[in-house]
Amino acid sequence: MRLAALITTFAILPAVLSAQTVGLRESTMPAPHHDRDMGYAVWYPAIQGSASAPFGGNPIFEPNMVALNAAPADGRYPLVVLSHGLGGHYRSLGWLAAGLAQSGAVVVGVNHPNSTVFDFDMQTGLEHWTRAQDLSRALDDLLADPVLGGMIDPGRISALGFSYGGWTALSLGGVRGNLAGYISHCDTTPSRHCADITRAGSDLRMLDAALWDGDHADPRITRVVAIDPGLSFGLNARDVAGLDASTLLIQLGAGADRLDATDVSADGSNLSGLLPQADLLEIAPAAHFSVLPLCTAQGAEILEEENDDPVCTDPEGADRATIHAQVLAATRAHLWLE
């Protein structure tokens, strides 16, 4: 089933969420495949009345309201494993995780080693299969947790990701990479991601093709949401044949506002054409970074002074809060939360 091909930012009113209190726990867990620990966070429905406080804000981004280490609410809930983008952080999708927890889900996100804002190595970070391993490891850890594990309905487990994390979610659902196809894309019609790889002095040809092209699906994942997914160029029908999970693709922006590296249309990677069974939601006006947190009044100015990516600058006519509401509403509907 295909959703409407193009929806303006004002076509969907912000979803009205329940008053469910959102709990948050942060910690680390062993990640043997990285030979070190990795950080993680769990957002969950908490006991009503738990004291909430601003969390995750900084001079650039607005915080979210959560109850740190609050007692969990009774019940069994769907679980969502959450994957951030290249150079991101689980807090960069905290607004979405908190919104899903407020709607009745447990959400676990990790800081993927080697591809996080404070822990970044382009060459090693390109080993995308380790990200799927990260989330499968987090899933194992959470299901075994003596407190939070009992909240989870093991029959309702989903993967959700943004950008590089969108690929991670698709990989967990059964999509396989095609290293030769991605190299050919970067050699012939390079996108921004290809340019970033070259600028970092990294080399796709140094990667293990068997691992890049391997099957990294987690059979526990039954639904997938991929927001502006990366690494989708050079795929063919065989590479996506293993995707059994019910899938929602969310495409941000149109025309010049759409990031070329995450364009799933026929003008880009044609991932949407390879997955005719997936739902597709295109949101415009919007940009790739429109799903990052709401920005403070001075956020754009600070980034401009630092000559950083314009992550606080949305296209003319776009409203980030409304874009967030659209993404959250579509995700909730796809993940048993309606």
UniProtKB/TrEMBL annotation:
InterPro entries: AB_hydrolase_fold, UCP031982_abhydr
Superkingdom of the organism of origin: Bacteria
KW Acetylation (keyword) present: no
Statement: the UniProt record of this protein carries the keyword Signal: yes
Signal peptide bounds: 1-19
Keywords annotated in UniProt: Hydrolase, Signal
GO molecular function ontology, one term from the record: hydrolase activity
Pfam assignment, any one: PAF-AH_p_II
The name this protein goes by in its record: Putative dienelactone hydrolase
